[in-house]
Amino acid sequence: MKLGIVGLGRMGGNMTERLRKGGHEVETYARTAPDRTADSLVELATRLEQPRVVWLMIPAGSPTEMAFKTLLPLLEDGDIVVDGGNSNFRDSIRRAEEAKAKDVFFLDAGVSGGIWGLAEGYCIMVGGDAAPFETLEPALATLAPEGGYAHVGPSGAGHFVKMVHNGVEYGLMQAYAEGFDLMQASEYDIDLAAVAELWRHGSVVRSWLLDLLARALEENPGLDHIRGYVEDSGEGRWTVEQAIDTAVPLHVITAALYARFASREDESFAAKVNAALREQFGGHAVKRD
User: How far is the C-alpha of 106 from the C-alpha of 55, rounded, in Å?
Assistant: First the structure.
């Protein structure tokens, strides 16, 4: 099939390459990419035949909103906009309604795979109407490994499922981090890279994340080249916010999000308050030099 990709970063660029290798014709637009085939969204729209399929692979928030608002007037009845970024699912519900008012289809596609997606394929969770999903299936089948894509529900469902996916990812990553931290601090001289490799074979905690950790520890056993500073994307926060809204307890995911906050503090004010209280009631305090 023929489609347009907007955004040629690490994800969009690799998805474009995988689609072309799979025999699809892909027109591209990105403001700073020298290998784009169109110099504007207007030109991109003119390069596609109806029903046009335009897939956005750009950052969530303002960049996606601006591209969507610019693109919508350029499209016609039956055309399809796919948002493959990590947008808030409520924004996707709204955009689907705005597109529907113009008789344009909108699909929200949560995409997982990162920089490994080109070789391994992408897991794709799609929300929206069934008809445009079926139109998009040839591209999805190329992008995903076998069994790696699905229509998960109506508008917003794709990004909702991807949001929860990323929340789960936070928890899994934090569990590995804490376990290896405990082994590193123990009285035993444990070869952490060897343990990570060992757990990859037959262990109930084996996973692709563990594969990546084993790779990282093999390359640098002490992880000396990496700061212990962990950013959080919007999905982790949105997952916790949704849990609050629906009164669903997410103990692990919430703790993992807070651990990322803590990683970005050189010395928290809360720790200073604790130290000050211990000094006040018991005379215990560690003073600065």
Answer: 10
